[in-house]
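> forwarded from #structure-qc
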């Protein structure tokens, strides 16, 4: 689950990131609005935590651009205490929820869970490929009718690979989808996950494209 956190307050940003990591979220953290908008238009996230008061483009502008581009990613806005007009403006601009600073981390986690539940209720078709069935909504995987239990990273990798067969996915892109920007990754981690997926399904499932990345044939 990849989350983009946009917050210019160092302590708060660190705090949120530290609190969310054990929950299994991958948190990418940016500290200004322009970088956030750039990241959002080039990469995909399951959710955005967006502070409104930001340098280089405030959060409200980021949100307006995002929605004008028809990006449906759920957005939780963070606002200062008593800034009622900010909250209203945020919701009007397409925020899905808001939290007033200072907030309790437990409340933040609860709001995120609720938002993610709602967004997964939007229809997300199951992916089917040569006997494999991956259902993003229930996070279940079957192979030839049998349930297959996949660790989180393998599930994410398989999902990424099956979205659009025939497309070569670069190592960089896959690593970002699995680990985010900052997480320390062992250099052969991706190979190990690919190896496991080939073993659990069938060897030709994922082809290595030398020097580039990986491919699932059409
Ligand atoms: Ca701020």
């Amino acid at each position: 689950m990849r989350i983009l956190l946009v917050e210019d307050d160092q302590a708060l940003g660190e705090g949120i990131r530290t609190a969310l990591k054990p929950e299994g979220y991958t948190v990418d953290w940016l500290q200004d609005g322009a970088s956030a908008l750039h990241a959002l238009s080039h990469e995909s996230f399951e959710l955005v935590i967006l502070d409104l008061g930001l340098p280089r483009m405030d959060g409200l502008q980021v949100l307006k651009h995002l929605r004008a581009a028809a990006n449906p990613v759920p957005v939780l806005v963070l606002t200062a205490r008593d800034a009622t007009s900010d909250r209203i403006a945020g919701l009007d601009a397409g925020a899905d929820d808001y939290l007033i600073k200072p907030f309790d981390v437990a409340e933040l986690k609860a709001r995120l869970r609720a938002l993610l539940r709602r967004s997964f209720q939007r229809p997300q078709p199951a992916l089917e490929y040569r006997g494999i069935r991956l259902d993003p909504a229930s996070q279940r995987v079957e192979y030839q009718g049998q349930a297959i239990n996949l660790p989180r990273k393998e599930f994410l990798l398989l999902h990424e690979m099956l979205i659009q067969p025939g497309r070569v996915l670069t190592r960089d892109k896959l690593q970002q989808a699995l680990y985010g920007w900052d997480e320390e990754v062992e250099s052969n981690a991706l190979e190990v996950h690919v190896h496991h997926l080939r073993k659990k399904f069938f060897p030709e499932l994922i082809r290595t494209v030398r020097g580039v990345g990986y491919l699932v044939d059409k």
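QC bot note: The two ends are 26 Å apart (CA to CA). The chain has two domains: 2-121, 127-215.
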